[in-house]
């Protein structure tokens, strides 16, 4: 049975960066109620009512996975490791974005699947075989017919975006070779609870996974987990190594140990999530109080990164231009636009943070190390970052 534990109020579609702000565009903006459930049967954490994917993954998809050095390095490392460990001859990536993972493979070795047409065009143009479609059983059958069984299927920050997980996993079963591997990584619910990073909940993050939930869900599609990795990326992610029930892989000892750890953290109990929701309310109160205090002193505050995550914070906490003057973002097609819901203008960072800025809210807190390195001058002149994870805090030199 699914039970709601968190209500993050009215939220927009996070990819809907507005080009103009006027009566018409404001009236047209789509909002839904963002509440989050825990299922005591499967242990899965999901949004109560997912938004229609066709409204999200359009031909105007803004996010570019290759915007951070951290992620470029991470994809390079995992590509190298996967090649060394599994020696795949035919690999497929679900949700290939702008090709940040693909580029580590030879063109004839890898197939891309990407439903956002503007992104699919990028990898197609670079010469990668790209299916501009959602990952479904129908597509999987088509791919199997053309290429036979796949040795490796990889997905990063994609599977948690798909409402119908049974369809995803059945589709994997269809096109994966007998001893093929399906490797996927997504933000980890255990880390979200630990870091109080409630901004990991937004329209696109339909589910947040644990090992407990994933072990149950994969069974129905005759798949099983044989290894896992815990990652630092995106504020704490989990990577699952999955194979067919009948395959040769034996389960690593750490899988069993990790399950015990999750039980100790209470990931199989509703009350753990309920307690988290109280911490979220506290975080909102403290963030608003800090921002208001800073503004009363006449200081200038911006947001560093107009991330999708930050849309949850701005809309849940009701933070608009009265508290945050503008956001900077390196993604070209976000620049000149306005953040969804709260309509904060987005600018190009033009190198470093401007001299007259006193505080920068970390909309991209998951890249704090990279950002601190880049913004040494801001910190040297006394500038401070505002960060909401794990607690509301200021980060200086
Ligand atoms: O799952 C998803 C993740 C992986 O990416 C998608 N649903 C959408 C998107 O979510 P996000 O926007 O919360 O992800 P990021 O990668 O945390 O966003 C950071 C934003 O900050 C990007 O728009 C780029 C920007 N940025 C910047 O302006 N300066 C990032 C860095 C490191 C910088 O130095």
Short synopsis of the structure:
The protein has helices at 23-28, 53-56, 69-86, 117-125, 137-147, 165-175, 189-195, 211-219, 253-265, 270-296, 308-317, 368-374, 376-380, and strands at 2-12, 31-39, 45-47, 91-94, 110-113, 129-131, 150-156, 176-187, 207-208, 223-231, 237-244, 301-304, 327-328, 346-347, 359-362, 384-387, 393-395. It is an alpha/beta fold and 397 residues long. α5 runs parallel beside α6.
Which outline best applies? globular
Describe the strand arrangement of the main beta sheet, using strand numbers: 6-5-4-7-8-11-10
Euclidean distance between termini CA atoms: 48 Å
Structural class: alpha/beta
Q: Ligands bound here?
A: ligand DWN
What does this molecule look like?
With 397 residues, the chain is α/β, with parallel strands linked by helices. A hairpin with a 5-residue loop joins strand 16 and strand 17. The chain starts with a strand and ends with a strand. The protein is globular. The protein contains 13 helices and 17 strands. The mean pLDDT is 97. The strands form 3 sheets. It has a 7-stranded mixed β-sheet, with helices on both faces. A 6-stranded mixed β-sheet has the order 14-13-12-15-16-17. Strands 1-2-3-9 form a 4-stranded antiparallel β-sheet. The protein is 35% helix and 23% strand. Ligand DWN binds next to helix 11 and helix 12.
Provide the fold topology:
Blueprint: E1 2-12, H1 23-28, E2 31-39, E3 45-47, H2 53-56, H3 69-86, E4 91-94, E5 110-113, H4 117-125, E6 129-131, H5 137-147, E7 150-156, H6 165-175, E8 176-187, H7 189-195, E9 207-208, H8 211-219, E10 223-231, E11 237-244, H9 253-265, H10 270-296, E12 301-304, H11 308-317, E13 327-328, E14 346-347, E15 359-362, H12 368-374, H13 376-380, E16 384-387, E17 393-395
Parallel strand pairs: 4-5, 4-7, 5-6, 7-8, 12-13, 12-15, 13-14, 15-16
Antiparallel strand pairs: 1-2, 2-3, 3-9, 8-11, 10-11, 16-17
Helix pairs in contact: 5-6
The protein binds ligand DWN.
């Amino acid at each position: 049975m699914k039970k709601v534990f968190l209500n993050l109020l009215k939220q927009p579609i996070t990819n809907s960066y507005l080009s103009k702000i006027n009566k018409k565009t404001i009236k047209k903006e789509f909002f839904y109620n963002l509440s989050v459930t825990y299922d005591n049967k499967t242990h899965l954490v999901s949004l109560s009512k997912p938004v229609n994917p066709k409204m999200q993954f359009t031909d105007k998809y803004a996010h570019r996975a290759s915007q951070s050095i951290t992620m470029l390095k991470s994809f390079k490392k995992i590509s190298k490791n996967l090649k060394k460990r599994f020696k795949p001859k035919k690999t497929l990536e679900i949700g290939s974005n702008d090709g940040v993972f693909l580029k580590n493979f030879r063109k004839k070795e890898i197939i891309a699947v990407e439903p956002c047409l503007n992104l699919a065009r990028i990898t197609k143009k670079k010469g990668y075989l790209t299916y501009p479609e959602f990952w479904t059983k129908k597509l999987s059958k088509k791919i199997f017919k053309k290429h036979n069984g796949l040795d490796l299927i990889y997905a990063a920050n994609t599977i948690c975006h798909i409402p119908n997980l049974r369809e995803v996993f059945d589709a994997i079963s269809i096109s994966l070779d007998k001893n093929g591997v399906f490797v996927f990584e997504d933000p980890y619910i255990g880390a979200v609870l630990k870091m109080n990073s409630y901004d990991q909940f937004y329209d696109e993050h339909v589910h947040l996974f644990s090992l407990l939930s994933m072990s149950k869900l994969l069974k129905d599609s005759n798949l099983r987990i044989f290894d896992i990795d815990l990652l630092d990326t995106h504020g704490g992610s989990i990577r699952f190594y999955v194979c067919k029930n009948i395959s040769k892989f034996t389960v690593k000892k750490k899988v069993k140990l990790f399950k015990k750890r999750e039980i100790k953290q209470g990931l199989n109990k509703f009350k753990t999530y309920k307690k988290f929701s109280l911490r979220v309310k506290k975080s909102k109160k403290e963030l608003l109080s800090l921002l208001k205090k800073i503004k009363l002193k006449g200081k200038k505050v911006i947001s560093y990164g107009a991330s999708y995550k930050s849309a949850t914070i701005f809309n849940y906490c009701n933070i608009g231009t009265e508290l945050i003057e503008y956001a900077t973002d390196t993604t070209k097609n976000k620049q000149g636009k306005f953040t969804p819901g709260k309509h904060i203008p987005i600018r190009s960072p033009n190198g470093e943070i401007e001299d007259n800025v006193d505080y920068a809210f970390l909309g991209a807190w998951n890249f704090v190390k990279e950002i601190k390195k880049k913004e040494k001058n801001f910190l040297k002149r006394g500038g401070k970052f505002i960060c909401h994870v794990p607690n509301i805090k200021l980060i200086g030199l």
